Amino acid sequence: MAQRDAELPVAVFDSGVGGLTVLHECLVSLPQEDFVYLGDTARFPYGDRTAQQLVGFARELAEILLADGAKLLVVACNSASSAALPALREELADKVPVVGVVRPESRLAAAHTRNARVGLLATPATVASGAYERALRTAAPGAELHAVASAELASLIQEGGEVDERTLACVEGACRPLKSAGVDTLILGCTHYPLVRPVLQRELGRSVSIVSSGEAIADEVERELRAADLLRDERRRGVYRFLATGDPEGFRRLGTRFLQLPIGEVRHVEVEPERRAAA
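^ that's the sequence the OP posted. Answer follows.
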């Protein structure tokens, strides 16, 4: 791998604003680091995309971010991570390390479960990929994964309104098979879901541990940077900036709720017209 500059930012991309829940944890855990975040809001949602589309989107977003320089790439989107992470790691092996959400979350779930019954709530694309089954099998060979695909929940959350009866009904329906399976740990397989974590916890009960990607990714990013001797001086205060493929003002307004920190200027970036048309 080529020599990297510790002063470069950590780059993060997601299908929309959901990955800001991951960025929030990274900013808390690594306040000395600089971050750049790209939200592909023009093509949200990713949950019903084909694997081929997701690989194409991921390659394009990675190229945009790396053109400005980065020392590590985080694929915050579960759907993109499930479909495209192996390809990105292979293609970028000589440039930057690539961190995805699947393996870190699976390791956390393996550490939390007591009865070896782990639930997964995710988009249809993520569930169909089988990535979490493979990762959990490695982390906890004896564990069972009970996956539930929701085509609606991420979009309901992305709308940015109050938690309403539609959201409650969606959560209740998704949790029903998880409760029947007796899971004691739930992986939130979409970066949007932490915003309804209290609703999920109430539905499942306090005995069920909920694992989200933010904490898992923050630990993984720190581990990668430390291993490569790329951590910044802890005495400095890092900065963060934002790019969006859709409306910058819409991103800023909605994203503040997800990040729980101020969002200043958001720069618009273009994606390939034919890919946008195909989406």
